[in-house]
Amino acid sequence: MAYSANLTLRNQNSPLAFGPNKSTMIEEPYYYHRNYKNDLNKTKEENNLSLNKRIFLLGKRVILAAIPFLSFSRALRYPFSIAMDSCRTYKCYNDLVKAKDAKNNEKRYALVHTIIAVAALAATFFASPIGLVITTCHDIIISGSESIASLQKKDWQNSLVAIANVASSALYLAVLFTCSIEVIVLSFGAQVLLGFYNAGKDLKNGNNIEGLSEILMTAFRINQFNEHFAYLKYKWKNYSKLHEEKIKEIMGEDILHFKEGDERDKFLILNASFDWNGAYNPEYGDFCSDVKKLSKKFDVKYCTVANVGDIKKEIADAAKLGKVKGILIRAHGDSDFIQLDADPKSSSMISKKTLSSDVFTPLDPECRIVLDSCDTGWDLKDGIAKQIANVSQRITIAPNYSLSAEDSEFVSNDPLRWTFDKQPHTQVIYPDSND
Q1: Residue at which a domain ends, from 209, 237, 265
Q2: pLDDT tens digits for 233-284?
Q3: I need a labelling partner for 427 at 20 to 30 A (CA). Which of 111, 211, 272, 336 fits?
Q4: Lowest-confidence pick of 27-36, 323-332, 375-384, 394-403
Q5: pTM
């Protein structure tokens, strides 16, 4: 009952995997960003070069301009971070060597930057999200120092650019710690503004390769900004609250809780708090009609969930009142995750990382879990529906395509059997044995 969300989470923005160590207190990177000018020495233009040297210099500029785009590959992010942190460490060490005959303040400054660069490299290797935090803090320190130096020289333009870089890095740091959709939108917005400025500066100075690279990266960031700003508007519109009010209007307030003294088996309808396009409006399709049919056999409760913890609590509370024979999860998703909340924290995703058997332990052994969520039944080997089936040890039913509002319904003679756009798109997934 959901149009395909086309979230970028599955590709470059997934918070579900980054490096080898995932036991950190911060959110794993929702998207990747760093100030590359702090990693690499600027290529200097020289006159009277031979043809071979000019070709080499041109190739180097092209490679350096292309490097930031490698971060869009989720698989490359960890080795990419190691490589960039190594380049920054080498750059800082060279600066330290060059400062051996400089004033003590300059030596200390170079030494501090080298120590921070080494710490970031080590942290990236052993606990990658922490390494990115250190690198981002280092970017803030460098840009802050540049802004102070520019202010002292009364170079107002460069001081404003440096301050803007501080703000951009600080916002990205906030993304790493909060993963709030509001902060993500602000972060993308800051990078778009800086991208426009840097592109214009490079093109004005005749650095066409670098300028075109900045334009292309800015175009990517504009697309990300627009997409996430749309999600932010849907979050502010609070569809989940509207959905609850609508189903209460249609079905009565009793649908929002189990009935006192009702000894029938329980059926939980768990609606995600995040509904980016309003596809889970209870008025769409035959949903309310299906709920009325369910209510003839089961004690049914409709509720909103924003994270896996909410699901665990609802299941546990329901199990105290009777046997939980059915669960319907209505949420946007893809083959490897289901998103429950607009803020894309890992805890708001049903994923391989967040699933645990204790979430489903209170369910009746014969309970069926139905995923009304796009493409969740696509990957029968290791997809999210298969993961849920294996972790819960319950039969899980899911669609293998992008749904529309009229596609899901249960088989009238067996409310625990569901179909999606009739049988061809329905995957009934049995758990692998734990034996």
Answers
A1: 237
A2: 777 776 677 788 888 888 888 899 999 889 999 999 999 988 877 788 888 7
A3: 272
A4: 27-36
A5: 0.68
Residue type, 41: N
CA 407 to centroid of chain Cα atoms: 27
- Contact by Cβ (8 Å): 270, 311: yes
Please check whether residue 415 lies inside any domain of the structure: yes
Q: Work out the pLDDT band at 17, boundaries 50, 70, 90.
A: very low
Q: What is the pLDDT of residues 220-235, one digit of tens each?
A: 999 999 988 887 877 7
Does residue 300 register a pLDDT over 80?
yes
Total domain count, the chain? 2
**Up-side HSE of residue 144: CA atoms within 13 Å toward CB?**
9
Whether residues 350 and 227 fall in one domain: no
Q: Are 7 and 375 in contact (CB under 8 A)?
A: no
Q: Which of 130, 193, 92, 139 is nearest to 185 (CA)?
A: 193
In a domain, 435, yes or no: no
Q: What is the DSSP letter of 401?
A: S
Tell me how far the alpha carbon of residue 330 is from its chain's centroid: 19
pLDDT of residue 250: 84
Range of the domain at 255: 239-429
Q: Which helix (H) or strand (E) holds 389?
A: helix 384-392
The angle formed by the CA atoms of residues 119, 122 and 128, to the nearest 5 degrees, is 105
User: What is the Cα–Cα distance from 342 to 181, expressed in whole angstroms?
Assistant: 7
48-57, 91-100, 154-163, 395-404, range with the lowest pLDDT? 48-57
Q: Is the pLDDT of residue 16 over 70?
A: no
Mapped onto helix, strand or coil, the DSSP state of residue 324 is strand
One domain for residues 145 and 293: no
Beta strands 266-272 and 299-305 are parallel
What value does the mean pLDDT take over residues 201-208?
Answer: 91
Annotate 200-223 with three-state secondary structure. Answer: HHHHHCCCHHHHHHHHHHHHHHHH
Residues 284 and 314 in one domain: yes
Reported as type and span, the H/E element at residue 398 is: strand 396-399
- 308 and 231 assigned to the same domain: no
Are residues 184 and 302 both part of a single domain? no
In this structure, the answer to whether residues 160 and 20 fall within a common structural domain is yes
Residue 67 has pLDDT above 70, yes or no: yes
Asked if residue 233 and residue 371 are part of one domain, the reply reads no
CATH of the domain at 296: 3.40.50
Domain boundary among 206, 237, 268: 237
Question: What does residue 332 show for φ and ψ, rounded to 5 degrees?
Answer: -75, 145
